[in-house]
Amino acid sequence: MILDGREVAAKSRTKTAEQINKTGIKPVLAVVLVGTDPASVLYTRLKHKACKEAGIESLNYELSEKCGEAELLAVIDELNEEKTVDGILVQLPLPQNIDSKKVLARIAPEKDVDGLSPANLGSLVTGEESFVPCTPKGILSLFKEYGIDVKGKRCVIVGDSVEVGKPLAICLLNRSATVFICNKHTPHLGQITREADVLVSATGVPSLIKAEMVKKRAVVVDVGISKVKGVLAGDVDFERVKEVASAISPVPGGVGPMTIAMLLENTLAAAENRRKCTGKGV
């Protein structure tokens, strides 16, 4: 079974657009880009495009790669105070001279639609899941769509980033899974991954996960993305692993589209929450 992220994401985007049209709420998302990294520029362009299609107004803030930390924090402070802005997204990674942790911590939790502020990550631990980071949320949505229940399952995550691995592990624990977190440096990685009922890889190392590292009939989710000879590649040796797995997500077309769809869902939720607090309908 192929976990088709494009199809599921399209359903989610349609649902978001219908909800916006039905309620008359016009969410506003501020997207902050620092520098001209080609991948970041592409990702922000795709996010703006998806927002427009869903009926979300997206504001574009582009800062020079020479931008200092204080300048970026000042922009975030301004957006936190701006009453018309529902969500704030700072495109990662940031230049090395800027402390990403400090920047993410500065975003008001109620506007943190990427779910990466300390407050929202902390809420995951308590099981509240106010704003779940977009990629983990996208994976969970894929599981729901395809009827994959992680309760009681042994889940192995390869990759311990704050954007994917760590929050996904907590989300899976919240759903009564048994979770192991590894990374590309874990010794005897294959011995661990072969025990997984659900295997998620998010390292950016092309073809790290081979067929012999996968348990027969396992669910395999490939979050990694890199370029090999100009072609997009994932962490998983897709052609061989798909012969072993019961379900697998492709690269491209798997988790990537889900991440953007979940950003739209989170932005709409932020807009709805703000209007509940202020008592304003639109």
Tell me what the structure shows.
- By secondary structure, this protein is α/β, with parallel strands linked by helices.
- Helix content is 43%, strand content 16%.
- It starts with a helix and ends with a helix.
- The protein contains ten helices and ten strands.
- The longest helix has 24 residues, at 255-278.
- Strand 4 (154-158), helix 7 (165-174) and strand 5 (178-182) form a beta-alpha-beta unit.
- A five-stranded parallel β-sheet has the order 5-4-6-7-10. The chain has a three-stranded parallel β-sheet with strand order 2-1-3, with helices on both faces. A two-stranded antiparallel ribbon has the order 8-9.
- The protein folds into two domains: 24-110, 3-Layer(aba) Sandwich (Rossmann fold), CATH 3.40.50.10860; 134-256, 3-Layer(aba) Sandwich (Rossmann fold), CATH 3.40.50.
- The protein is globular.
The poorly predicted ranges are none
Number of contiguous helices: 10
CATH topology of the largest domain: Rossmann fold
How is the biggest beta sheet arranged? 5 strands, parallel
Principal-axis shape: globular
* Elements, N to C (H/E): HEHEHEHHHEHEHEEEEHEH
Could you name the CATH class of the largest domain? Alpha Beta
Structural class: alpha/beta
CATH architecture of the largest domain: 3-Layer(aba) Sandwich
